[in-house]
Amino acid sequence: MSSTFLDFARVELAPPRYLSMPAAGMDISASGVKIATFKETLHGLELSAFAEEPLPAGTIQGGEIAGRAKLVSVLKGLSKRYGISSANITLPEARGYLFEADVEGNNANAWRVGIERHLDEYVPLPVNEVMYDAVPLAHSGGTTRMVGVGYARRVVEASLASFDEAGISVKSIEGEVFALPRALRPHGDQETILIIDIGKTTTKLLIVSSRLPRFATTLDIGGHALTLAVEKHFGVTEEEAKRVKAEQGLHAGEENHEYLTAMLSTVSVIREEVARRLDYWQTRGTGTPFHEPVTRALLVGGNATVRGLPEYLEASLKIPIEHGDVFTNLASRDKWLPALDYTDLSPTALP
Description:
Layout: H1 3-12, H2 17-20, E1 24-28, E2 32-41, E3 44-54, E4 60-61, E5 64-65, H3 68-82, E6 86-91, E7 96-104, H4 108-116, H5 119-122, E8 130-140, E9 143-152, H6 153-165, E10 169-175, H7 176-184, E11 192-198, E12 203-209, E13 212-219, H8 224-234, H9 238-248, H10 257-284, E14 296-300, H11 309-317, E15 321-323
Parallel strand pairs: 1-6, 6-10, 11-14, 14-15
Antiparallel strand pairs: 1-2, 2-3, 4-5, 7-9, 8-9, 11-12, 12-13
Helix pairs in contact: 3-6, 8-9, 8-10, 10-11
């Protein structure tokens, strides 16, 4: 049976919506809730809806839900507006413990037994208070290198309770550090890369091999600091500052020397922190199994499109830097173009 006919049957003879139970992807951060839904077409997946709803200040603190009633209210609104009854959700990197483990065995059950024997060494919490998952990275002889992430049970249960109260059934939960590289990298990719995700208030750094996270950290500075620098320099509103930042970025003429100085004083902090983490990875793994050097970086996030930022970072990091494509695994651009503005490069980290 030809693949063309199978594609046609999958799309045109698909089960009714109430039977197929399509799920949205939903990501919760300190700044808001992002949602994305998809539809199948003959030429592949297309984005059918995308939205971001801001959360009141203090709803999420340190990666944990501090204002559950406020979060539930926003989730209910999104559910009603976009017809969302079920969702795949992500948990924040800030509350997760990324780990690697070498275990014996050749199947998932044996791997889990090997991990659980030493789980307290990977996640600094009482074992009965941890929820985790892990996947194989590589095999060597009778040993398998596993990459996993653990969360405090209370973090997982608080998220589930919030969605349940909002009337949204959770179909799957995934750590943000696993969802992000899978969205940005094509199937079968083996490259070791650095992902720099510049959000509003934080910058996430993630080193990835074979689409799996190997190192992750969060910096407490993001693109909003650049907006504040523009506000202060020009004495304008936040919205006007965002426009100036988008138009001028790190490119400014002689007459705007003070503006450029203000911008660089902020972005240089991000650059130095990124360089320090990258140098740690590049130098510590010489001769270490399953440890390849980073060959390039992908820049994503709501502030990734600041003009001149890739060139500025590339000059210091000494590796190629390019914008990440969050639609890598969707329909070909020859058949479909996403209905999103160029300045919206937020990875969303949706499973």
